[in-house]
Amino acid sequence: MPRKRKNQKINEDLLLVYILDGSGSMSTIQDDVVPGVNKYIDDQRKEKGKTLVSLTVFDTNLNRVHTAEPIENVQPVTQGLTLMGGLTALYDAVGQSLKAVENSEDVKDMKKLVIIHTDGGENASREYSLIQVNEMITRLQDEGTWTFIFVGAGIDAWRHAKGMGFYQTNVVTTDKADQKRVYEKLGGATRGLRGQTAMASVNLTSTYMGDVAQPDSRTDNQTVAGDLGLWTPETEKKRRARKVS
Length: 245
What we know:
The chain is an alpha/beta fold. The protein has one domain: 3-Layer(aba) Sandwich (Rossmann fold). The chain is built from nine helices and six strands; from the N terminus they run βαββααβαβαβαααα. Strands 3-2-1-4-5-6 form a six-stranded mixed beta sheet, with helices on both faces. Helix 1 runs parallel beside helix 6 and helix 3 runs parallel beside helix 4. The chain is globular and about 50 Å long.
C-alpha cells in the first residue's frame, strides 16, 4: 500500500460504479447477493468523503438503477431488483454504465471504483463489443483516477476479464458458495482505496481479497483467452482484417 506523505491530503470522495449480474444463473446466490449489496452500501455511507453511486443490474437487458446518485438517496435492493433471469449482456452493461458517468463534472475530482460482479461470460450484448470495452477501460485506467475490479463468482475470472483490459491484480476468482465473505472483502478493498493517497489502485483485489481468492487460469502463464477461443481485442482485429480483405 502506498505510504502517506506528510501533509498530503487524502481525497476520500468516491464514485462507486457497481455492475451486477442479474442473469438466471445468479439465482443460486441471491440469499447472499441481496444482503451483501445492502450491507456494502450501508458501510460506505459511514465513510468519510462524498459518495456517489451508480448501480446497473443486467441480464439480456440493462436496468440502470442509479447513475451518480448521492449515497444518501440509495434505497436497499431487493431480489426483485437484483435477479432479472435472462442471459449475460456484460459488455453492454459495462459500456453503458461507464458512458453515463465518464464525462460528468460531478465526478471529475473523485476517485472512481468500478466493480463488476458476475458468475458467467458475455453472451448477449448488442451495442458494445469486447474491443470497445477494452479500449474504454484501458483509456480510463490510464487517466489515473479509475480503478476497475472484476469479481467472478464460481467462474474463472481471469479468463473473462483479461480481454476486457483489467489489471491481473484487480481480478479475483471466488467460490460461488463464499459470496457473503466476498462482500465483506469488497468493503475492505473500498476502504483501502479511499484511504490511500493515490487516486487509483492497480492491486486492490490482490491486497485486500486474497482470503477469498480461488485458483484460476493465471497459474499457467498462457494467453488463456486466446487459447480458449474467446473474443479478445487481438482476435477482433484479425476478424475485421479478414472481413475487409
